[in-house]
Amino acid sequence: MKLSKFIFITLVLLSSFGCKKKEVSESDFEKDVLNNVFVEIVDSIYMDRRTMEPPPMPRIDFKTNKEDTVGYHDKLKRYQIEQDSIKNDKKRILISVHDFIVSNEINDEKFDLSPFRNNKKFDFQYSSKFPEEIYWDLNDKKNKMPVGTIKVYKIHFNKTRTYGVLSAHASCGGGKCGRGFEITIENKSGEWHITNIVDTWVS
């Protein structure tokens, strides 16, 4: 009788540990997948406020209804030099990342940025370190503020966990521009990569 009771208790304990291990494993699995595709996602959708301004256009002389090109070519040249400078800048691009991975659950999970600390192209920092986007000066060219922000949502996997879909948002700050995306990722030959990106909204 005592032996049966001992076996029963042992099976219950093993079962509870097994369930706990499975739950942590699923959570770690999602984190690992997101860490694998995050930089690829950012590189595909980020918006740079420094490049949002369109090139200058020649003014129209309303008296003659002709283009007034006085000084226009100099302005266009300065614009092109500035854009080339941004494009060829080897400094890491400062990107603001929403502090949490957004989900439909009561508490969103903190996004751990430590795996990307040494990324060569991007300098990822939490959004909470900066003023609200609506107060950003889009004309600031000194790079003290992020060039844009990224927000990612929880990944929804298929049953075999070889395919996933998540939403992501990108903004250039200042409440002036933003875009939403639905991103499809797949595990091919043991590596996760983006297979499709669809625009869902633009502001």
Quick description:
Helices cover 30% and strands 29% of the residues.
What topology does this entry show?
Layout: H1 2-45, E1 59-61, E2 66-68, H2 72-88, E3 93-97, E4 100-101, E5 109-110, E6 122-126, E7 148-152, E8 156-157, E9 163-171, E10 178-188, E11 191-202
Parallel strand pairs: 3-6, 3-7
Antiparallel strand pairs: 1-2, 4-5, 7-9, 8-9, 9-10, 10-11
What report would you give on this structure?
With 203 residues, the chain is an alpha+beta fold. It contains two helices and eleven strands. The strands form three sheets. Strands 3, 6, 7, 8, 9, 10 and 11 form a seven-stranded mixed sheet that branches. A two-stranded antiparallel ribbon has the order 1-2. A two-stranded antiparallel sheet has the order 4-5. It starts with a helix and ends with a strand.
Largest sheet: 7 strands, mixed
Distance between the termini: 71 Å
**Shape by Cα distribution:** elongated
The count of strands amounts to 11
Compute the number of helices.
2
Encode the helix/strand succession as letters. Answer: HEEHEEEEEEEEE
User: Can you give the helix content as a percent range?
Assistant: 25-40%
The percentage of residues in β strands lies in 25-35%
The chain-level structural class is alpha+beta
User: How large is the radius of gyration?
Assistant: 25 Å
Low-confidence stretches: 17-24
Give me some keywords for this one:
alpha+beta, seven-stranded mixed beta sheet, 29% strand, elongated, 203 residues
